[in-house]
Input
Amino acid sequence: MNKKQIFIFQLVFTLLVCSFLIIPVFLSVLAGITQNFFVGIKSGFTIRWIVEVLDLYSETIYLSLIIAITCLFVTLIMGIPAAYVLARIGGRISRFIEETIVLPVAVPGLAIALALIIIYGGYRDFRSSWYFILVGHVLFTLPFMVRSVLAVLSSTNFKELEEGAASLGAPFWTRFSTIVLPNIKPGILAGSLMVFTLSIGEFNLTWMLHTPITKTLPVGLADSYASMRLEVASAYTLIFFIMIIPLLLCMQYLSKDKNKN
Amino acid sequence: MQKETTSISLKSCGKTFKDGTRALEEINLDISGGETVVLLGPSGCGKTTLLRIIAGLEEPDKGGQIIFNNEDVSKLQIEKRNVGMVFQSYALFPNMNVKENIGYGLKVRKLDKVQIDKRVSEMLNMMHITDLSFRNIDQLSGGQRQRVALARAIAVRPRVLLLDEPLTALDAILRDRLRVEIDILLRSLGITAIYVTHDQSEAMALGDRIVVMSDGQISQVGTPRNVYFNPANEFVADFIGTVNRIHANNLENFNSFKEKELLFRPDDIDIVEKKNCHFTGKVKASFFLGEKTRLIVNLNSKEEITVEGKFKDEYKIGSEIALRINTDALIKLPK
Output
């Protein structure tokens, strides 16, 4: 085989793998806007299912957004100082704490959810509010914020920059807000996008933690599939894509920007 | 520009790090107002730690005191000490341009905008970097960064200026040029300055006094001449300049010397006619350096010395030369 043939072979193989992954998604989206999925495209397009989803499940969309935004806010408040302190201490203790924070990512979501229910399930009001889901989401997403901020912190010589600012008369909070924060912005941004997308799409934990009145988008999606409303579920997926794809593109763009530097 | 100067007095300032490393023995040092003092020593000798203690970035061990004029500043954090500091890596803020970097200390001090602008342009002028005003830090060369760092440190009119190996990161030619600039700058400001370096020629050129340090202790304090010509001990003699050492009883005409071991600088030895010589040796290597020639000479006693001078003749490797020490210039170490 010459080089060209090898290239074509590889290209075809890659396209096959891609289509294996993409076609179901594409079909699902198509189903969401087709009159009758079993008849096919000839039955015509419609936005009926999307409207129906918005009717039935708009609450879950709002709740997902609210939880994602609150989760982002909490991880910012907790994650940035945590990363800063970890970077300052350094050494073995810092690494140990970092690993501990990352643990919830490694442990199956169901196990964490169970643990949360066992410990806090008795507090009725808390159990039945969306704050309960929020706690799970924060546990799950915090390591992503901490890690991405920590990565940027350790790639800047922030200690020396801070010393420079201190020598010019800046007290701690001035240094932190005018020197440290602006210089770790790329890490904060990357972490934020990560936390937001993960929180919106989180299913494992949320499935266990939700109640009938605190359903998030992915839980609603599972419901609609389970109730065999394929076209509604598909329209639902479409809405989810519309929400999540711009965020994913942003993330991609940011990481490209970082590589350039 | 600045009339009032600040004297610095260190009283038993030692430093033991948390892990138990003893970085600095108890140091006592007086620096008068307007003086430029260079802390010189090999890496790990504690010179940077001492500078950081003066700056307020490190706290001395219990009992240590730092006094600016008559004020005890030992307990003051760096941001309250009003010191200007130039870091080895410059520590310029990447999120600000040149102008904002220089103005940072003034902004923190809440000066009004007109005043800040005026002072910043003064500084830009003084350091000849006005055309760089709006550049980002990553668009600057090493030498330009150095100038910005200096301007930023001076802009706040600090009581003392602390420089931590400011030229180490630059190439040789730039280093020489900036050394001259820094020298002129420090003299025109008349500010008390403490300059840390491991480069002895930098120390000689800049210091009113040199503090030679080794192993966390001060080996000698003195003017550059004093330290060069009258080193207090072997460490100083070896660290500053090149020193030749030979045993007197290995010499052919040794009766004129009392000392057992003779220490002398490479340029304190002349090539003479054989009848006047102290000893002879064979040229092992020869380097023509332009303003002078350096010869490495193997003595008959197998000792090796370095000889420097403006020799007209070229000495071939292997040729025998007769040498005479300038006996007035022998280095005498205190017993």
